[in-house]
Amino acid sequence: MTAKSVRTLVLVLAAGAAGAACRKPPASETEIAAEASKATPEQPASHEALPESVRLTPAAISEAGITTWKVQPVDLEHMLILTGSVDYDENRLLQLAANVKGRAVSILVDERFGGSWDDLRAARSAASLPLLAKGFFSTEAHLRTARDAGADAALLLLRDLDDAAARRLLAAASELGLETLVEAHDADELDRAIALDAPVIGVNARDLTTFRIDRGEQLRLVAKAPRDRVVIAESGIESRAQGAAAELAGADAILVGSTLMRASDPAAKLAELLSRPLVKVCGLTREEDVAAAVEAGADMAGFVLVDASPRRAPGVLSVPGTMLSVAVVVGEAEGDADLVQVYEQEEGKVRGRDAVLLRDGEQVARVVDLPWQEDDPTHVERARAVVGRVMLAGGLGPENVRAAIEAVRPWAVDASSSLEVSPGIKDHARVRAYVAAAR
Q1: Within this chain, do residues 240 and 324 fall inside the same structural domain, yes or no?
Q2: Fewest C-beta in 10 Å: which of 68, 113, 177, 192?
Q3: What is the DSSP string of 37-88?
């Protein structure tokens, strides 16, 4: 399986997310308006007026503050949607946007949540980049206002629209030259979005009525969405592993909000969320070793469920929600884990050479490993030849993992025996050194 060919371009918007408490004091709003008033009034730039190299279709809409749009072609791992949903500072967000070479802006326009059409107009006066209007739109007049204020796209929330209204707004947006993101939260809304032929569908983990997050249900819905649509996993992303979980479920992009806004260095946090490879610590048998892997910053924890292995775990131990658990088996998939790493059986050995990584029974990556207790000088070349997501395993440790990453550019790396003081017992210092070298 190969990653979808998509990239995103990110920029900041000028409004908060969850009400007046998320806004800066009124004085800053005045300053923004004053700066905008200095610009020479111009007709809002149209989507079609952009250079061919950056002519965009929206990959998603943010909850507040930042969004991404897609252009072909780059790997899925470079996709990210950013949103601001806590207190923010415009200069800080602008610096973040500059660091990630932003190319699109999403602006909250609903006054009940601290936004305004003037924010959109000010952004249009200051930028020629695509703008997305984020609000609770229910009429063609709303969309016309969005277009006239300078928007290139608009959000449509199915929780507030019946099918007839949604279909009417989709048609009106098309006539007005606006792109749309149709947002769903539950199975019924996803089915409706599919039936409406929405080209871009957002699946929000947050219930906008209770504001509770349910990532498990979100991932199930993302996996259910048709692959001929752009599918966005929105909200609830705090770690690389959670972003990867959405990717493996089939998302074309992830929406990240308060995680970045709460970070002391949002640009560094963004780089962390986007970076690959993921780092797996395998052969874990004790809770204290799991805790060491978590503290070190590992993305995946591996638990061997093979009786013949000297690293046989008592089961899949508990891991935090920011990490992925992996059951490692031989022959048939088993284990209550986020992913299952399945090796073939080989006579006289604990396991066969290579494995596949499964999510809900479907292959999402290949594991390129060494033969059991053997070496192979062609190991790196074999891994480099694999198309699609590759987890590189076999002989990796703090001393060589960085060189292996540079040579193979894998989606993930996996180490076990080199991190031990004895089979199944981890050396915590080596775990930390391995994760640091890999990340």
Answers
A1: no
A2: 177
A3: HTSPP-PPPPGGGS-GGG--EES---SSSEEEEEEEEEEGGG--EE---S--
Q: Where are the alpha helices (DSSP H) in 239-337?
A: 240-249, 258-262, 266-274, 287-296
pLDDT of residue 10: 31
Structure token digits, residue 98 = 């500059």
* pLDDT, averaged across the chain: 78
How, if at all, do strands 420-422 and 425-426 pair? antiparallel
Give the tens place of pLDDT for each residue, 73-86: 223 333 344 443 33
Q: What is the pLDDT of residues 117-130, one digit of tens each?
A: 988 888 788 767 67
Claim to verify: residue 147 and residue 286 sit in the same structural domain: no
pTM: 0.77
Strand, helix or coil for residue 361? coil
Structure tokens at 323: 């990490």
**Burial class of 273 by CB neighbour count within 10 A (0 to 12, 13 to 18, 19+):** buried
Q: Are 130 and 152 in contact (CB under 8 A)?
A: yes
> Domain of 99: which CATH number?
3.20.20.70
